[in-house]
Structures are given as C-alpha cells and as structure tokens.
Amino acid sequence: GNTVWIEQRNTLVRDSAGRLVAVNCVARDVTERKHLEEQLRQSQKMEAIGLLAGGVAHDFNNMLTVIMGFANLILSDEAPSPSVARKIGHIKSAAEKAVILTRQLLAFGRRQIFRPTLLNINSVVEHASEMFAPLLGADIDCVFDLDPELSFVKTDAAQIEQILVNLSVNAKGAMPGGGRLTIETRNVMLDGAITGGTWSGQLPYIMLAVTDTGCGMDASTRSRIFEPFYTTKEQGKGTGLGLSIVYGIVKQSAGDIRVFSEPGEGTRFEILLPATEIVEAAPAPPIQAVPEPASGCETILLVEDDSGVRQLVGLILGISGFEVLTAGDAKEALSVAEQHQGRIGLVLTDLIMPGMSGIALVASLRQLNHKIRVLYMSGYASDSVVAHGQLDPKIPFIQKPFSGPDLIRAIRETLAGGAAALESEDTVTYVDPAAYQRRW
Fold first, then answer.
1. pLDDT tens digits for range 186-205
2. Which among 222, 129, 130 is positioned nearest to 182, based on CA atoms?
C-alpha cells in the first residue's frame, strides 16, 4: 500500500553484428532521497514564510506601541467624555488583539527575543497542568507520564508553556467527543534518524511528547500543519497559527519536532530539545521590591530609530519627571552624550537599529562612563540574535509594545538594580545552541 519512487536506467545490449539481443534494466529505490528532497523544499518554504512574517510583525510592533501608548495617554491625562473614552477603549482593545497576533507571527518566524534559563521541563509541565482542566473540559482525560530523572535544558520557560497550551488546544479540537491527552517526558539519544518512533544516536536530548486519541490526519494535512494560517477548522474557529508557533519556538530552541498521525488513529507530537551538561539549576536570586517614587529625577538618554515610538516614549518619560535626551540612531546618541554636561543616569535604547546596534552603542558609551545603566527595548530579534544565540536573562529588557506604567517600572527597577545593570563587557551574552551538542 506504500508508494515507492524508482529511478530506472535502461541500456540496449547488442551483439557483434549490431543486433538487439537484450535490454539491461537497472532500477534503484530512491524513495528516501525523494523524501529528503521534499523535506528540504518544505524547510526552505517555511524559512521564507518565517522571514516575511517576522519582518511584518517587527514593523507592526512599532506601530502598535504608538497606537496603544497614545490611547493610554488620552485615557489617563485628557479626561475624555464617556463616549470618547469608550471609542478609545475599542481602539485599545483592537490593538491588544493585534499585539497577540504579531507575537504569534514573531514566534513562528523565530524573531522573538529569546531569554533562556536552565530548567527541568517536568516543572514547566506541572505548572502548566493547573490550566489543563479548564482548558480541556471534563470530557478529556489528561494523563501525565514524566521521567523523574529528566535532564535539564536551556530554553525559555514561558515559550515551553506556550507549546503545551497550543498543542493541548489543538488536541481538544481533534477530540470533539472527548478522549485522552497524554503528556510525557523522556531522556533520549538522538542522531537525527528515526525508525518506527524509536530514537537512537549519540547526542542527549529530552523529549516532550503530546499524544491525543482524536481524529488524526492524513499525509496531505500533515505536510501543511506548520504553515501559518493553515487550518482545517471552519472559518472563525481558529487562526491557523497554533502549530506554526510551536514550530518556530522549537526551532529557536535548537530542537526538532516530529509528528505521527493517521486518520482515525490520533496524533502524537514529539518535541526534542538538546540536554545540557549541567544537572542542577542555580537558585534564583530573591526578588526585591522596588520603591515607586511619584516622579523620576534622573536624566535618560532615549535612542530609538522609529520617530513615532521615540516621540511617545519621550512624552511618557517627561510626564514621569525624567529629563530626556533623544537620539534617532547610535551615532547621534554618542554625539549627544559627549556634549551633555550633566550625568546620564540611564540609556534606554532599541536593541536592533540600522548601522550600530544598541549593544555596540552601550559598549561605546561605557568608554565615556563605565557606570552608566542600560535598559534595552525591542519587539524583534534580528538575524544576528537568531544566528548567534539569545539575550541573557540577567540583562534589563522590555519588549515592545509596552505600556507607560510598565516602562516606568522597568526603568525604576534598572536604576535600583545590581551588577547585572552595570556589566561592561558581557552586557549581552550570546550562547550558541550547537555548542551544547558539540561538547557531547
């Protein structure tokens, strides 16, 4: 019942008089090669779609920052009439929905700012399990089979929770009449080859598997499930982004994802992430409360290449009592800092800018003042971040789009912070995910 691809070459065999006496036929089974070619084409297609989605989401994040920021300022400062306030509330609500959509696109395109920590996936599953009952409903039985000896991985805990939620919601849709959802974790060895669902190889990975007893999928559906906006649900019942987000997160974590499904036989997703050499996670530092004064008094150097965002953030900082110096790029920021006679308490800079990045800018500014503090902001990870690693979770950072109160809170926390805010050389640590594999 399987399709087999054959490459056949036929050669005419003649005798000494030139008469045809035979046909020599050599046939090779090239099914595996055809499958690899198909996987390559699919990978190239997904990469192209991801680049497009990430670029569009980046521009929208800046727009949404401006829309939501000024809507909040009007609601808080202008005391609009109830009728105007309701209309602005609708604008804000629509923008918030758009924020969710753009973050989904960034996740698919692997352009989210990735902040990895050392963690045990079991703890993430146990934490997320609290939401499974209301999420899945009473007609779906959720079973957990977690390996107590599971190795640690270095990844973003919030994104792993997002994977679990998206796969669980997808499984629920495949089991309209109820069923069983099984979540399991295992230590596995992987060399990239798979036979009958059994992994074998040289590199240590952890496997997070989500299996349902639903309707399953045919080969045609399986080949497209990770494409953004592709869905088998009726219109209005889903965006078609759930599985594409899972795909993007897994790839950003230097992992792999496999799907096993047949019509009527349910579906199994296996997510594989590289294990780390470290077996114990360092204890997290205690969280200290940060006092919130009525207004700020420090001088802040604001560096942002988008004029709308720069105008909005400057207005928010000014309202909060800070003295604001603005620059549209790194070169202008260096000039402003050199000419300013007073003390600059903090640099608030976009992480990704044309020309010199925020990282390089801060390194240059610290040659003028090594004690200057920094808060990065961005809604997008550039190719350099995607290729070389992730933003160190110790470094102060706020993701666009953000609200005014969230921004002021992040600034106060950075100004009151410890050594992490003052690191001079290792301000941003890039970690090559493949390095973990090479060590093994």
1. 998 876 544 334 444 578 88
2. 129
